[in-house]
Every structure is written in structure tokens, then in C-alpha cells.
Design brief:
Pfam families: FTP, Peptidase_M4, Peptidase_M4_C. Its main location: secreted. It comes from Streptomyces actinomycinicus. It is an enzyme of class 3 (hydrolase). Extracellular zinc metalloprotease. By secondary structure, this protein is of the alpha+beta class. The chain is 29% helix and 26% strand. The protein contains eleven helices and 29 strands. Strands 2, 3, 4, 5, 6, 7, 8, 9, 10 and 11 form a ten-stranded mixed sheet that branches. Strands 1, 16, 17, 20, 23, 24 and 25 form a seven-stranded mixed sheet that branches. The chain has a three-stranded mixed sheet with strand order 13-12-22, with helices on one face. The longest helix is centred in the middle third of the chain and has 23 residues. It is globular, with a radius of gyration of 23 Å.
Length: 549
Amino acid sequence: MSRIRQHVRGTRHTAIAGVAVTTATLLAVSLSPAAHADGRPTRATAIENAASALLAHATGLGLTSSQDTSVRDVIVDKDGTQHVRYDRTYHRLPVLGGDFVVHLAGDGSYRGADRATRQAISLPSVTPEVSAPKAADLAVNALRAAHLGARLEQVRAKPQLVVDALHGTPRLAWRTDVAGRDSLGNPVARTVLTDARTGSRIDAWDSIETATGDGTSLYGGTVPLETTQSGSSYQLKDPTRGNTYTGDAEGKTDLCFFGICFSRAPATLFTDADNHWGSGTTADRATAAVDAQYGTNETWDYYKNVHGRNGIAGDGKGSYNRVHYGNKYNNAFWDDSCFCMTYGDGDGTTFGPLVALDVAGHEMSHGVTSKTAALTYSGESGGLNEATSDILGTMVEWYANNSSDTGDYLIGEKIVKPGFGKAALRFMDKPSKDGSSADYWSSSVGNLDVHYSSGVANHFAYLLAEGSGAKTINGVSYDSPTSNGSTVTGIGRDKVGKIWYRALTVYMTSSTNYKGARTATLNAAKDLYGAGSAEYNAVAAAWSAVNVS
């Protein structure tokens, strides 16, 4: 399961050389209130404090006169502590791995920073020796190689010149997004990173990341729905959650290349005469819509009520869902470019409609990741990206407390059909039960597909929540081993969700690997429960149990 990645940029820019700050920005800050009603600094104040910290600590942050920064995200804790996340450019070129988070005390003083890379960003030239058309050709070949035997149509490539600081010494590179359609008309896409001097491939990864009325759903029984009355009928649109809504894609697909869509599958808003939606069967097209809207509602409520996040982007704005996408499409995905969730119906043999609750939580959590740490979708950071969606999607399922879809540590158990051959897509207690995922970290784990390298973090999260050994929870049997033979005692899933969310939004960056995730979660546990607390020690023990030290 996957999502089309987009860089998210803030509106505030700081130029280190000459301290160039626009008048409009200064006015906006000076006219903004300095504090919330509860005394905490405002977002604008945090950005202003961080801008001052950037000027004072430019050398330590690796900032030079050739670079600019832009704000991606801001978090202000209840005690006034501020965390401002930045992206970076070098001679106006995006720097992959240039992101960092500045941490400030309640009074605005600098406390430190987390950086995706600590290497100096300095290039002899920003003029490529490999042309853009050549980079595009290489990327097209890479997409075709990733789909050997498949007939791809309407293949397009869009190269972008960047600085790659994710893979060793910073260098000039082409980041090329290439996309097309398979023989069924369903989308395929890949991002290819090419050395702009030699033409050699640096990295490549898939860029489609795969997974008050009432409604009778496919997987969750009868569920409550907030809808909108329009004349004598009702719309499947929720005014209490940012106007999130669900529409019918009518079996069509998007024709989009690199954020520019020449045509999009529709999202024809579902309407109903009596505000009782669906029938619990696929014969009624509204049934899948019920599941999708319900999944959106529960995911929204989980992030808001547990983490204080108002919507996926944290801005109170709702997303929307499209169901019945494509032809027997065996996938679901979050797309930043439309700020929407899209669900296929499955082929009926391997998968049924992919609208299950944990799938919705998984895919929408990709949206949260893209707005915060933006974990690169390859290598160990890609595994952490997928694991974040598995972990937080699982937390959504537990949060919903639905007796028809009880909480568990299985991923996608509702959507698999007998033709899939396994009880679920992934198993958090012992990831290797799926035949491909890693139970423990090793130096080669970053070479795995990101859905399989995610196993290390999934296993960590299960151990931290429930502990090691055999047990039965909600009727599901688990038996979680440890790499070092230790016995791990769990601290409960609620605390795990809070620790992982804070680590993601405050400490992780685009290049965070497993060692960095250990540090990030320990910092989060220290913030939430104190250094040396039982929770802090349990985080350390659970990472050691999956061979991350």
C-alpha cells in the first residue's frame, strides 16, 4: 500500500545571508498575538523564535549563504516548548535530506536540533553533466524494469534537479518521477534518483504507496455517520470533521503526471433518501462508501482526541474518499496532490474491497507522515514510513472499539481472500510470518522492500505494547520472540501510540533510520514520562529485543 509523495512547504522563508526577511512576514508576526489564551507561544511566535535561532546557530546547523530554509511544520507543547521543522534549499535546489527540526524552550531559547544529515552541503557546481532528457529515459527504463512482462502505456517522466544529501556525500542529482498505466488502466509509478554527473542510479522507490445517519458496512457492521441534509436527500459529507466526504470513482482512474492531472477519476458524492446507507454487501455501491467514510471518521477522531491533531494536515480541513477506483484494483492509497484517499475493489480472489478500518488508518497516516517527518520512501527510512502507518493504523483500529472489527495486531486481515494464502497482509508480533518481513534489524534490512523492512519497527511496537511470549488478545493468538532471548514487559498500546506519534512529529526527519528511530522514541518517552521511567526503559528494552542499539 502506498501514497504519492509530495514535498510540503511552509510560507515562512529565512535567508541566512543578509538576514533577508520580507516586510509582509515581519508585519504578520508583529500583528499576531504572542501567546495563546493558555499562555503558550503562538505558531507565529515559535517561527519567529526559530528564525532567530537559525541566525544565531547557523554554523551548527550547517547553514550557509548558499542556502535558504522554509517552515514545514510547527508544534508547541503544553509547557510552551516549541519544535519548528524546516526544509532546506541549496542555490534554490531542494536538498533531499536537508530537513531539520529546531527545538526551543518555552521562553524561545535554543535547546538543540535534529538534522537529517550533518554533512556539509557544498557542491563545486549546480550545472548537471547528464541532461534532463537522459535522466528521464533512465527513469522510464527503471519503471519498465520494475514491471517486467507488463505492458505499460502513457508513460511520462519529469526530472527535477536536486541536491542529494541522503546517500553519503552531498551531490547533484536528478530526482525523476515516472508514471504510467498497466494493461488494466491502473496507475504505476516510481521515483528514480540519478547522479547528475555520472548518470549512475543512486536509488529508486515506488511512489504509489500501497494500502447522524447510519450505514451498514462490509467489515464494521452498522456504524454511525454524520451527514449533510440537502433538500429532501442526504449527502455522505461530514460537517463535523472538516467536511470530509466519500464519492464514487465509477471504475475510472486518474491520468496524472507529477502533480499535474489531465483527468481525474470522479468522486461523485454519494446521496441517500433516508440517511440509512449501504446494505452490508458489495451489491450496493454505497456499502464500500460506508466503510470508507467510517474509516475516515475514526482516523480523524483518533488523531484529534488522542494526539490533539485537528485533521491530517493539522489545519482542520477534511480530506475525501474515492471508492470503486479502477478495474479490480488491488490497492488503496493516500494522494497528497488531491488530499484524498482512494480505494480499489480488489479482484475478489486475492483481495476484497480495500476499505477496512486499519487500511484507512494506515493510508491516512501516510498523509500525517508527509506533513511531518516526510520519511523518505526507500531504505530504512522507507521501512519506518510504512511501519508508522501500520502502527498508527493499528491504533486507529483499537481506538474505534468496534465489536465487528475488534482491535488486533494484524494488518489488513479483513480484506484478504483465500487466494492470498495468509490470514493477513502483515503480522506485528512476528513479522516473518508473512514469509518476507524482518523480525529483527540487520545491516541488510534496508535492502528489503519497505513493506518488509517495516517488520523491525512493527515488532518493536508490538513488544512495547504487549510484551514478549505467547498470549491471546481479543481471540487472536500471538507469540512474539526476541533477538536476544530477553523477556519484554509491555506498557500498553495507548502509551506506544503517544510515544510513536511524538517521535514522528517532533524528532524524526526524512533520513531517520532504525538507530535514529530508537533515539527519537527514547526522546519522546523522556518527554512524556521522564528519563529513567518504566516507559523509557521499556522503549530501550524493546529496541534491544529487535537488535536495534
